[in-house]
Amino acid sequence: MMRNAKYIWQSGVVLLVVLLLAWPAGIGVRNSAAEEQGTATPAGAGQTAVPEAPSGFVLLLTGNWGGQIEPCGCSEKQLGGIDRRSHILKAIPASGRLLVDAGPLIDKEDLQSRLKFETFLFSLKHLNYDAIGLSGEELLVKNELKPSELPPLVMTNMAEPARQTFEALGYLQKTLAAGEEQLDCLVLSLARELPASATDHQKKLVQLQDSAAAVKEMLASLNIDPEKSTPDRLIVVTMSEKNKGLAEKLQQMPALDVIATVGTADEPELCEAKTGPVMVTTGRLGKYIVRIDVPFGYRDNPSQLRFQRIAIEEDFEKDAVIVSRIDDYQLQMQIEQLVEDETKIVRQPLEGGNRFVGNVSCGAADCHEDIYQKWREFRHGYALETLEKVNRQYDPSCVSCHTVGMAYESGFRSREKTPDLADVGCEMCHGPGEKHQQDVYEEYQTVFTACEQCHDHESSPKFEKEREDYFKKIEHWTVPREYWE
Ligand code: HEC
Ligand code: HEC
Ligand code: HEC
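^ thats the input. predicted complex w/ heme C below
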């Protein structure tokens, strides 16, 4: 049992350095990392943070993907990608590790999310995950999809008959083995409530129960007293929601060792607690893996338990099988014509019956021809081509920011159907142009905050700091700067 353990949470960068150094070659050790060895000594470096061949067991936790299969590639040095982690996992023998996803993988139930969900399940199975907790939207789509590849699903707070229809387990038991040593592990997963869109019929099918009660009941069925610590077993509970009340209830169960939950930060966090199980958040968007090292004999010396966040770096080698599955996913979106077909995604009407007219219309000879020419040559003017180069032109979650008005009734559909609405056109900053075209005195909009709808923290991390430079680069106006600053 790990009560009173002194938990050590180390900074991602330093850890990654240690990790890269400690693991066998083939991980892509960079020189800079090697150089830092002498100076960057992590806290408690005396105890080997990551043994060469781990002389202990390893718990690996992920979760809260928000549908992010891979980073968008809009800027440099983005973390994450389901295809970029296999070598991290391969470095630890499957028999000596417990690899668990707390969920949720997707957070919507639209067609794209369904295709994503299948891609996720395939990939997690391929990566040999031991347990996945499903919840929310996933429960609504799982049985409709009947995915071909299914990693072990665990749903502890679901009534048994429902669990059977979901092909899910109430708990997962795994005995880790490394050398002569063994460690019995138990995983319980708690699904969050169904989304508001769930029908009564769906609610009835899913049969979610009170989570804390379900944990106690499940433990009791395994002859484990939730009130007592269990020295012969490591028990992990995952929650796919931020739920303070539930977390507090779980922390009062001495039988539990680790609670993995959903947080708000991209980076995993260790929630310090003086007593009770250790609580850790999984981070968001697949950018990190939480690694908890459980050395042999840790029970005699619980302070050896170690926590790390492993950043999934841009230059990590990609897994060819998953890359090919992601290609299939892109192909499915092309076949389904998610962007092109009027009915496959929700399209909003524009305010006041206005419509998009397109870049060429704005740049007509007697209108803004000079501005049009300038725009064409700048990056906004070939933003769709950028997607075509990386084969993401059929992915609505990319096209929405790289074209005009995809999410609206008169917006972009495809290069063939709406060639003039390709790229980040005039109307993405100035608003739909039909009324202005019919009557030039009809004000066109310039919303200086328009930039942030696309230049957000994820896609354009430099924008906030270099705002002025960004404006300078697209300058095509004569209005004095003070006017809009
Ligand atoms: C509809 C989405 C969208 C809006 C709105 C938008 N941008 Fe962009 N911007 C993009 C995309 C996409 C790219 C990258 C295009 C490419 O390279 O294919 C980009 C690229 C840029 C670049 C090039 C960056 C570089 O380092 O060269 C600048 C500068 C820029 N935008 C400025 C702005 C400013 C200023 C605004 C607001 C007035 C703005 N953008 C509004 C989507 C948008
Ligand atoms: C929220 C809006 C947004 C979404 C969604 C988006 N992009 Fe971008 N993209 C941008 C912006 C803004 C830039 C320019 C960033 C900069 O230079 O500051 C950009 C730039 C790019 C670039 C050029 C990078 C370079 O430096 O040459 C690529 C490639 C790209 N995006 C691909 C994608 C893909 C693939 C997707 C879908 C997975 C996607 N984008 C989704 C806004 C977006
Ligand atoms: C990335 C955002 C963005 C895009 C794309 C964009 N503009 Fe602008 N535009 C601005 C901003 C910002 C201003 C300056 C503030 C203002 O005048 O309201 C501006 C100003 C203007 C002005 C006023 C010029 C002046 O002399 O003051 C015109 C006309 C104009 N844009 C036309 C266009 C046309 C035509 C296109 C497409 C070919 C276009 N813009 C594309 C952001 C954009």
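The chain has two domains: 8-324, 350-483.
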